[in-house]
Amino acid sequence: MRYSYYPGCTLKTKAKVYEDTTLATAKALGLEVTEIEEWQCCGALYPLNTDEIFPFLAPVRSLAQTKEAAHEKMMTLCAGCYNVFKRTNKAIREDGELRRKVNAYLEEEYMGDVDVVHYLEVLKNDLGFAALAEKVKKKLEGRKIAPYYGCLLLKPRDEMNFDDVENPTIIEDFLAAIGAEAVDYPYKTECCGSYLSMANEDVASTAVGRILKSAYNNKAEAFVVACPLCKYNLEEYQNTLQEATKDPNAKLPVYYFTELLAEALEV
Known about the structure:
Helix content is 48%, strand content 11%. The chain is α/β, with parallel strands linked by helices and 267 residues long. The chain folds into 2 domains: 2-122, Glutathione S-transferase Yfyf (Class Pi), Chain A, domain 2 (Up-down Bundle); 129-265, Rossmann fold (3-Layer(aba) Sandwich). The mean pLDDT is 94. Its EC number is 1.8.98.1. This is CoB--CoM heterodisulfide reductase. It comes from Dethiobacter alkaliphilus AHT 1. It is an enzyme of class 1 (oxidoreductase). Keywords: Oxidoreductase.
């Protein structure tokens, strides 16, 4: 199986371990991943104003490169990048005027026909979790992990079509495949505060505090995430858990799902 790969900015800097463990595990699983040449930042946030074409140019350029490379699928990792590409692709496919303007500017003929996928979807739909389980060398038995989805993988529902918005299970199924126990808790799809951690720390810390306390009270020992910003926020505001529990040692480590996968595959 061959995929164009869009890393995004954060995976080359703060989230380098996310990229490294992805590429190592993909190779171990027989997945051929080719990084898109001269990719640009996707913009980080999906533009809501379709009258202005410039925010669409960078993501469409990468999608067109995938098409030109004869790859049917473009794989990404960051939940923010995934959200931007998935929604941009749908807009280009369905909005003829936007498609005409963007293609005219880029001198492309991209029609929105590349399939944008997240690495979790590759593991579930292309490889299959049953096949993944057979390749595991070290089952993570006894590990109680809280899946944290956040917003961007799942919403908006009609544009993302990633999983059930209210009760997603893809990360739980992934954890089962590598032998870990998924801890259910009420706040796994609630927003962590996103970029508000930069502008309004009180809002972000309150949001994260609810998530941390909920997982902790349901006996989780760690979090697993698919988003660099979610990981940052969950780690940054661990003090809210210590304040809520009155325990200065209370802490829930946060892992990318690929870190756990690398451990299970022993790569």
